[in-house]
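Dear all,

This email documents one entry for the complex benchmark we are building for the journal club exercise. For each entry we list the sequence lines for every component of the assembly. Then comes the predicted three-dimensional structure of the complex as a token string, followed by one or two observations. Please use this as the template for your own entries, and keep the labels exactly as they appear.
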Amino acid sequence: MYGWIFRHLPGPLWLRIFTSLVLIAGALILMVQFLFPWMSGFTAFTDSTIGSASQP
Amino acid sequence: MVLQEKARPAVVPGAGATILRGTVQVLGELLITAGIILLLFVGWQLWWTNVESDAKQSAVIKEFAQGLRGTVPAVPEPGPAAAPVDYGAPVVSAAPGHAGTIGIMYIPRFGTNYTRPIVQGTTGDVLDTLGLGHYVNTAMPGAVGNFAVAGHRQTHGAVLDNIHTLVPGDKIYVQTKDGYYIYVFRNNQIVMPSRTDVLEPVPTRPGITPTESFLTMTSCNPRFGAEERIIAYALLDSWRPASAGPPAEIAAQVAAAVGGS
């Protein structure tokens, strides 16, 4: 899959490497901004309040 | 089995085999990707949220310090000290709105750079980035009753990571715009998360009218888990108005946090 994407990127090799890095960086930013905060709602050890059922 | 396989003629990959191989390869790559994302998530949660929260909390303290400009004496009076001055009943300010900064907490036991903001509210937006969260239904610092705050044991700044290292007699300083509230740590307790009675005006004694000022801190227990809660109780020992300057023991820390001038 990744090989297929890499082969279909336009331009010479250095440009394709550069584009790949940009795509990876973009994916990382999306994960940190949206995916991880959403996922952290499912982990247990972030809740430090008492009676959290009544205090969301 | 082996013999049978050897006897089988060499397979020329047909269209079906190519599709199958491609599917397996894509599936494998997706699974590897999922694994990497999970590892990144662990790194993000255990490390990056601390970096992010530390920066945000420093900003909150800076903002709070700007609001204090002019009310904190430029140089804490050196004085011969010794005799503790009684400044009378502590001033109790009104609670700010949601996510408003109440003050700063200094706990020398947690290190000389332990300077964390106390912010109104115990919702995720407060606790995950801004620091210690004040339970909105509990008293304000200095008031007779229970001033209760929550903080993360791990992740998002890990503001109460060392809560189990407190020793009876340890001082806990709360600085607000009105002055300094000096609490003395008494004991820890480990309870189930449903034990809301630790937030009562007299902790764990519902219905009793308080005569003293408590400080109650709640955090996760065990570390890296949330099956239980660890509670730290402290009692108000003394109070000094902002005009009297910070207590000598934390003067350097206060100067570093909010600036001496």
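Observations: Residues 8 and 16 of chain A are 9 Å apart (CA to CA). The interface with chain B takes residues 1-2, 28, 31-32, 35-36, 39-40, 43-56 of chain A (CB under 8 Å).
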